[in-house]
Amino acid sequence: MASSQCTRRLFSISSFKSALRPTTNASPSITPHRRFSPFIRNCVYQLGSVQSLLPLHNTVATCRMVSNLSVDSRNCHDVSQVNAKLAAAEEALSLSVWTTSTTCRVLSLDTLLALLTGVLLEKQVVIVCPNLGVLSAVVLSLIPMIRPFQWQSLLLPVLPAKMIDFLDAPVPYIVGIQHKPDDLYIKTSNLVEVNVMQNQVKMCHLPRLPRQRDLVSQLTPIHARLSSESYIAKKHPIHRCNEIQAEIATQFLNVIWHYLESLCSKLKSHTITSVQSNHDRVSLLLKDTFIDSFPLRDQPFIKLFVDTQIFTVLSDSYLSSFESGKS
User: Fold this and answer.
1) What is the C-alpha to C-alpha distance for residues 293 and 155, in angstroms, rounded to an integer?
2) Which residues contact 87 (CB under 8 A, 6 or more apart)?
3) Signal peptide location in the record (predicted)?
4) Domain 103-262 coded CATH 3.40.50.11500
């Protein structure tokens, strides 16, 4: 589908904005409060902090920007700052649920979890789809989906055909391409390639996610309601998402977020903190004991995961909170 149509695919963004109205009793010198619909407020309460996604031309920067929201504006002295954060939350929420809903409609749960595994282990991920809207949605859905972790390497929703040689770069990446040349040979042993239209994934050997069976049992009924075979999905084009699908997509994201957060729930138990002569506190994660805390069947994944940048960045932030006594 033509790229000019992609801008119309942000589900219900106009309906979100129509829910915002200034209060009539606001002083001219004060930015008026914005009233959000119950659906937005409920989603913001559920998300707590949301991964902010802006237009595609600024993808890499925006994928690393997180808006930590306080939805109780009475406790904030700067009303305009609250409005800015809520506006960012609106945009992040709409893009997160739209991309997640679209991805679940074109990929089976098994394919999606294999793709998620490759991203978490920082493999070289290539997503192939001729439809620009679907392609960008699948690529961008991976960023909010891996919360609380943040992608630390290259992300290109649509790679121009003339830059196809970029796929030989020796670094982790998530790249979307419309067509794969027949003579293309990617020189890597860490490739995860997803053909969206055929719902197929070709990948290097990857271990199963920890507790994958439990995760699948939780996600299966939610994914089924979003898949292309469901009654709700058949009523709307792939690029369009109604409020029911948005609520289901939020449920899907919440399950994955709680699951990923649980992978780091034991960090403090495997951290030692020493006090230096200048009274500074230094914390160190004991990786070996942390790995051993998982069942044997889950350790192959954890052994690879603890050496990734996305795990290191999050664990370092946790260790800093331990050192400051905030956790």
Assistant:
1) 33
2) 34
3) none
4) yes
